[in-house]
Amino acid sequence: MDLASRLDALLPLWGICAWDASLPLRETRAPAPCPLPPAACLVAAFPYRLPEACYPGRNLSRYAVPPDYHRIVGARLAAAGAALAERFPGAAFPWFCDNSPLPEVALAEQAGLGRRGCHHLLITERFGSWVFLGTLASSLPAAELRLALGRPAPGPLPDPCENCAAGDRVPPCRRACPAGALEAGGFRRERCLSFLSQRKGDLDSRTALLLRRAGTVWGCDLCQEACPRGRAAELAPLPEFTAGLRPRLEPDCLDPASLTGRAYAWRGRAVLERNLSALEPRSTPRQPADQKNSAGDKISADAPEPIDKEPPSPV
Ligand code: SF4
Ligand code: SF4
Fold it and tell me: Atom 3 (ligand 2): residue with closest C-alpha?
């Protein structure tokens, strides 16, 4: 099997770009020594979305349902790096997956894997945005790698958001975001439930309410679910992402053995306990059925608790 075919077998979607826009490797936490300087980057995307029947009772983002993707992606990248090193003795190909400040989405765009969508995630033609990204640094220039691997420089890709963001229409991803994190001007990470569910410390009441409404303990998929590119995506997960699925986190699954090897464990047990309790109904005393509010309206004991403040409009 030639080298490009070996890479195809390990990396479902991959491309090459120059290193220019990236950061010095000394600023990263590489898992392997980096006797470089890097001249190019091989970027790979790993699809993970499964049929919906695989997610019964899900309260975790889809990416966190299989075993920790860092290990799976890392093993494939390491094997691809070894295959490259065989062909190019003396060169090193250290891999990265969320363990460096490399701008992975920007590099994936340059490598021709897709374009960033309005929801701030990479959209690939085949797999939508349901992909993990990983990178291999290379001391060989992009032109040399492309020649050896028969992979020409990518041409410009069409804007995936062109149709649904045209004119004055509010795109589906922005309409679906409950937190106002997607604005016309860009992505507001500090509002995003995916970011907030992973942040340590106390939850403010608004974030707790949003998590509860979204029914999520970890992460948020709402913008991706609403995206037509995501809905039409091919379901072609790697086999490693189809076993050991845990779509639902329960309070009795927080012991060290249960948390080992799960992507949602990296911030520790306390964050998960906090998020789980945000999903529980408030423990305040129920109101009598005939109690009236200040406007004189009857309050049902089963009515949802009042909302302090509506989430800001996403537009
Ligand atoms: S992940 Fe959720 S909160 Fe974050 S931008 Fe998407 S819909 Fe909004
Ligand atoms: S919903 Fe439309 S605008 Fe938003 S990311 Fe998807 S394609 Fe782009």
Answer: 161
